[in-house]
Specification:
The complex is a heterodimer.
Chain A (H helix, E strand, L loop, with lengths): L2 E7 L2 E7 L5 H9 L17 E4 L2 E4 L12 E3 L12 H8 L9 H14 L5 H8 L9 H16 L5
Parallel strand pairs in A: 1-5
Antiparallel strand pairs in A: 1-2, 3-4, 3-5
Helix pairs in contact in A: 2-5
Chain B lengths: L2 H8 L2 E5 L6 H11 L10 E4 L5 E5 L8 H13 L6 E5 L16 H28 L6 E4 L2 E4 L2 E7 H5 L3 E4 L25 H5 L15 E5 L8 E6 L1 H4 L5 E5 L2 E6 L2 H8 L3 E5 L10 H8 L4 E6 L2 H7 L2 E9 L11 E7 L2 E6 L4 H12 L6 E4 L14 H13 L3 E4 L2 H6 L7 E9 L5 E9 L15 E6 L22 H19 L3 H7 L4 H14 L12 E8 L2 E11 L5 E11 L6 H20 L5 E2 L2 E2 L17 E6 L18 H13 L10 H7 L4
Helix pairs in contact in B: 3-4, 11-12, 14-18, 17-18
Classes of the chains: A alpha+beta, B alpha+beta.
Chain lengths: ~160, ~700
Amino acid sequence: MKETIPFELNGRPVSLEVDPERMLLWILRDEIGLTGTKYGCGEGICGACTVLVDGEAVRSCQYPMKDVRAKKVMTIEGLAAEGKLHPLQEAFVRHNVMQCGFCTSGMILTAHSLLRKKPQPSREEIVQGMEDHLCRCGTYMRTIQAIETAAQEMKKGARR
Amino acid sequence: MKRREFMKLAGGGVFVFFTVGEPPDWLEAQQRAGGREYPSDFNAYLRIAEDGKVTGFSGKIEMGQSTQTALAQILAEELDVALDRVDVIMGDTALCPWDMGTFGSRSIKYFGPALRQAAAEGRAVLLELASERLKLPAAQLATKDGLVYEKPNPKNRVSYGDLAKGKMIERHIEPKPPVKPPKEYMIVGRPADRMDAALKATGKAQYAGDIRLPGMLYARILRPPAHGAKLKAIDLSGAEKIEGARIIRDSDIIAVLHSSFDLAEAALSKVKAEWDVPEATVDEETIHEHLVKVAPAGDVVEEKGNLEEGRKLSAAVFEESYLGPYVAHAPMEPHTATATIEGGSATVWASTQRPFGLSEEVAQNVGLALEKVRVITPFVGGGFGGKNSGRQAVEAARLAKLAGAPVQVAWSRSEEFFYDTFQPASVVKIVSGLDGANRLVLWDYDIFFAGERTSQPFYDIPHYRILSRGGWGRGGGGAHPFAVGAWRAPGSNTNTFAREVHMDLMAAKAGLDPLEFRMMNLKDERMKRVLTAAADQFGWKPMKAPSGRGVGVACVNYLNTYVATMAEVGVEKSGAVKVKRVVCAQDMGRVINPDGAKAQIEGCITMGLGYCLREEIHFRGGDIRDRNFDTYEIPRFSWLPKIETILVENQGLEPQGGGEPPIVNMGAVVANAVFDATGARLKRLPITPARLKAALPPG
């Protein structure tokens, strides 16, 4: 039942021969070897597996390959352009947000999707936008601060 | 490994070997637990390489607490080298010295001083080498920024890298050279950025499940529906039909292996198994009664005076029981291990807090000598005491041997809950007495299965006894229907909930402000200092509870780190609690990385809201009902209170621990604030809306 599924991954065209019912998470991790996207709960509850599909944050553990066809997929590995960290990545580093770091990839990508829709979110909008993302180390406070910092930097026109 | 072999593996340069100065009772405990002493051959060490880079080696692991960065700061400070020239390799059994494990907030407290001494030795070696090179007495030389220079003539200098070039030097200096006085510190005591931040922000940080080896197979293992269940019948034919699936059956393991995780899982779902499940005798409602019934006689942890005398002195006696549930660790990264066995040697990458203990378990289980097993600990995606068991790594190693190929075992979230070593459900019974002046005169404290940590009174009590029955890791006698173990600050969350709620209850009965009541029963100046610091920041105004304001206080001495926490809560009509503000003052001795310490306080406060308000494992005997975050809720963004942290200065005290202490007060401080808001006295965790409403005073 394999099909050829063409899509764009981190800015590059790819075409894979895969079962269209398989979830994107496992294709990324096991077939392509991009391990920055994490398995956390397998049911789309925790957000560790979040990637961007056409700029929208999705749970890759629940996102079948058939829906990826002809779309643009961005993983954490694709966010830093030309070796330069994205303002969100910069802000996460500057605020020392991450502890164990296992939720970080997903957090950054969900925040990316949030800022695309609301470039200058209020604190409440950040909390709402990030609500379904879990971090066991309890880094929510710094995550919010980092998103606020990134929003300011991006307003100044850092990029994207 | 022989020292020479190690030096070859690690590369050339100047090495310093030293002994970790753990206190004698800790060493004894290590021997009891592991049967191994610290190797007399060599121990923790550091290397100064030919490029001038400094590498520290530590058997501890990094699971989020920023220990790696703090250890690097210690090295950089003592060696006079820039922080970005320092690396710390952790948890690799081939490169790092033996260590019992990473827990108890001990990494900086016990490993830090030894590393500092080693760095001082390293600096002394460099001074000696420079003295030969520059033909000057060492007394005329000084170090700065990776260079040794002549004091009156700083241009006459040589770099550490040049001194180490072409050398394979192994040094032990006696007597030990002095360490730098803290007042000269330039790196330690100042905020430092996490060394792993950029790796974690870009997805490059590797965890055990990110290891990819040629020919590697992912294993999914058949699990029973409940602890204690026995396999009755099995039909593997469905799984056998999945293309590329390999089935391995060996004694207690039935596994499906595939080159992709999800396809291994798909094959496992085709396995039909029938089980005999033993009848459940306990659940989350009946467990406390059961625990009290099966509890052993117990050991006296500490006692003073005479309980009878205390009773006679008591004008008022208070008798209460405090109940705690099973609580899951629920790290975001489930237990994972990747194993390969080649040429009679095994290498295992594992998410573990105990790489050396794990290497022994693996060696036993795959029939290899200990020196043929190397455990490498990549970044660990959260531990909290839950990654002391090496079950997943033993499974990976066994399957790698059976399959003749590298194998990764990554537990699903369901397996993570099922095999978690929960914080044990527990009961604490307290009988206390106040004299006519509202001073504590009696404290009869009886712990069932929580463990004794932080049960020793810091209040000034003339007559007390602390009794502990069963520890956090010791069920025994059919106490628990599944495994239990250490959970971030083991025993202490339970003991502090009981003690600090009980203190609050007495204060309320005595008609006293809860802070004032604590202060008048305290002689410990450090505790008074953290309480005062928290009160100043919080703006605490003395008032008898319940005042309707919803404010609370709790304090603890956790292994010599002092913490005072104050909280403000709101209670909704539904009984739901919203924690609005938390102030935490902590005296942890000299602080290595203030920003890292504050991040730990913030994290502990946030995580602590979970066990306080929501976290409780539901079960029927060995059947664990909570298998994912849908029913087992952990704190979310919207729970976040305003958090204010204070590091109370104590330069005279060596660095203490910081990864656990601030979580300890959370249960009590919120319960006490809930009482202040509503008059509902909660003596059981978590504080669910239903329990809160049931505890509301009539009217």
